[in-house]
From TrEMBL:
The record marks 136 as: Transition state stabilizer. Its cofactor is Ca(2+); heme b. Keywords: Calcium, Disulfide bond, Heme, Hydrogen peroxide, Iron, Metal-binding, Oxidoreductase, Peroxidase. This is Plant heme peroxidase family profile domain-containing protein. It catalyses: 2 a phenolic donor + H2O2 = 2 a phenolic radical donor + 2 H2O. Ca(2+) binds at residues 141, 144, 146, 148, 150, 161. Coiled coil: none annotated. It comes from Aegilops tauschii subsp. strangulata. Residues 99-219 form the Plant heme peroxidase family profile domain. Belongs to the peroxidase family. Binds 2 calcium ions per subunit. GO terms for molecular function: heme binding; lactoperoxidase activity; metal ion binding.
Amino acid sequence: SLEAESVLLHPSRHTPARDYSPKSTAQPLFDLCPVITPHHLPSTVPLPSPFPPSIALRSARRPPRAFFMSRERRLPLVLALAAAVVGVLAVASPRAEAELQVGFYNATCPIAEGVVFAEMHAILHEDPTLAPSLLRMHYHDCFVQGCDGSIMLRSRRGTAERDATPNRSMRGYDAIERIKARLETLCPLTVSCADIIAMAARDAVYLVRSQRDHDEKLI
């Protein structure tokens, strides 16, 4: 028709037909439930590194060497560690068996402990204040490289253990030398100074306690 041809030739002159059909008032689904991106998804933004770029790049490209240590390289380390443990046990076993104990000199010098006790009884009768000094001497002797009696050694240059600053106020050297001289006359070259110091400290503590408990009179 002429009206249809006019609409096709001049569409701007004609208003569109109105739609009187009822419209839905419901909102689209995507408006009610907006899409939320989960926060745990990996981000494309790189995190800042606390290390300089060169160090961070080098550590990222080259893992630690220990991570790739082969079995052939670990085997010598394991064998060396096992040998060290066996060596320590082998050295410690005879030393533990040779430690000083009651009756240690029963076969070589049976009167050793009795002589030390008698001498300590006389020494503390003369000066009871030597008891803590002898206990201190035993501690200082064992503190440096074990209980070897090295605290009794003298040095002309003043470099001996007894010349050290903590040992300059030590008392009791004369008491140990007195007991040592007595034992040398009875059992020559048998009882060591380290054992004399240990037995003297033990007997000194016992005698002081006995005096406190009135078991034995020192004065």
